[in-house]
Design a protein that fits this description.
The protein is α/β, with parallel strands linked by helices. The chain folds into two domains: about 15-325, Rossmann fold; about 330-368, no CATH class. It is about 40% helix and about 10% strand. It has 14 helices and seven strands. A five-stranded parallel sheet has the order 1-2-3-7-6, sandwiched between helices. Helix 10 links the parallel strand 6 and strand 7. It is globular and about 50 Å long. It starts with a helix and ends in a 22-residue tail after the last helix. It binds thiamine diphosphate.
């Protein structure tokens, strides 16, 4: 009997990948949490509570799959403006994300200084999002280079869209990481559009992933609507990075289910049929179908989860909204080095002595 049971369990795709049933339920929770948070942000924007929204509906499955093999405590995430699900898996809360949307003083990314969609949290090793697309790639490579020099074992994951790969920064980062075999995972979430500019105007050749060959490391393409496949390729990339074998470029082919941002209207440049077809590749739908097929999800369990998530997002919204705006007298804070709050950047840095990049800040032992 016991043997029969074991056989049935290992026959599932997720068990063959080393994922437990609980892993799957947790992964689905994050996909659904990110989507609900996303829907809320759009409602808040339409209600006049936020000036702008940019987020990741359709990208959540690949982000959760990519993040799952990460060592959440030690590794680094360098996000972009669609990385809501990735940031939640890494340790940001829905309230943290909403504090940025509302530009509140305690927003962990920038203290309410950046425009919405610039996720980040130094306390959980998420770098603050950069506005110019592509610049996050050299940042990530810098972190990975430091990790290699210091032998910390940290791996850095960085994400971007396919349009951003046209930037010089992107290529320079790959070149450097390839030469020094750095522990970095380059994710490209290819949703076929850079605002209204289609893929073929950004990328000649078969794929973004194929470019990795020119920089001397593997590049893989994975279907972003297949969360388990997204996990599988990410796990291989993490294992490779941890073995000291260097970077991997992963191109996830995803669907952008909505417009580029709240300032865009995709119906003006995408055919109706294409937008409808994209919905069939929604990871929330495809992953739920997988969970149902292995007996992990049904209508009552789905309803209970939806109610739980709605409660969490309601509480996060009220709690973030109640926080004060930044004090106008602090407008120059974080602009000039002398006005840095020493605790702000040091939250997770345990290296004693002066800060290597901000020597004017005291270390955790109080020394400068
Ligand atoms: C250097 C730079 N150029 C232009 C922009 C304006 N911009 C913001 S997002 C974006 C589209 C990027 O498309 P892609 O990288 O494919 O990502 P997606 O939004 O499709 O996920 C552009 C052009 C910018 N932020 N930075």
């Amino acid at each position: 009997m016991a043997m029969h049971k074991t056989k049935a369990v290992t026959a599932t795709r997720h068990a063959a990948l080393g994922l437990s049933d609980q892993d799957l339920l947790d992964m689905y929770y994050y996909i659904a949490l990110a989507r609900t948070l996303d829907d809320r942000m759009w409602v808040l924007q339409r209600a006049g509570k936020a000036m702008f929204v940019i987020s990741g509906p359709g990208h959540e499955g690949c982000q959760v799959g990519a993040m799952w093999p990460m060592d959440k405590k030690n590794d680094w995430l360098v996000p972009f403006y669609r990385s809501v699900a990735a940031c939640l898996v890494k340790g940001m809360t829905p309230k943290d994300i909403l504090l940025g949307l509302f530009a509140r003083a305690v927003d962990p990314s920038s203290g309410g200084r950046q425009m919405p969609g610039h996720y980040g949290h130094p306390g959980v090793k998420i770098l603050s999002t950069s506005s110019p697309v592509g610049t996050q790639y050299p940042h990530a490579v810098g972190i990975a280079y430091a990790a290699k020099l210091r032998k910390t074992g940290e791996v850095t994951m960085v994400a971007i869209g396919e349009g951003g790969t046209s930037q010089g920064d992107w290529h320079e980062a790959l070149n450097w990481a390839g030469i020094y075999k750095l522990p970095v995972i380059f994710v490209v979430e290819n949703n076929f559009y850079a605002i209204s500019v289609p893929l073929h105007k950004q990328v000649a050749g078969e794929s973004v992933a194929a470019r990795a060959a020119g920089y001397g490391f593997p590049g893989v393409v994975a279907d972003g609507s297949d969360v388990l496949e997204c996990y599988r390729v990410a796990k291989e990339a993490y294992d490779r990075a941890r073995r000291g074998e260097g970077p991997t470029l992963i191109e996830y082919r995803v669907e952008r289910l909505g417009s580029h941002s709240s300032d865009d209207q995709q119906e003006r440049y995408r055919p109706k049929e294409e937008i409808e077809a994209a919905r069939r590749r929604d990871p929330l739908v495809t992953f739920r179908a997988y969970l149902e097929s292995v007996g992990l999800m049904d209508e009552p369990r789905g309803q209970a989860l939806t109610a739980r998530i709605k409660r969490e997002i309601d509480e996060a919204t009220d709690s973030a909204d109640a926080e004060p705006l930044p004090d106008p007298s602090t407008a120059e804070r974080h602009v000039y080095a002398t006005q840095h709050d020493p605790t702000y950047y040091r939250a997770d840095d345990q290296i004693p002595g002066p800060h290597p990049m901000h020597p004017w800040l005291p270390g955790p032992d109080g020394r400068r």
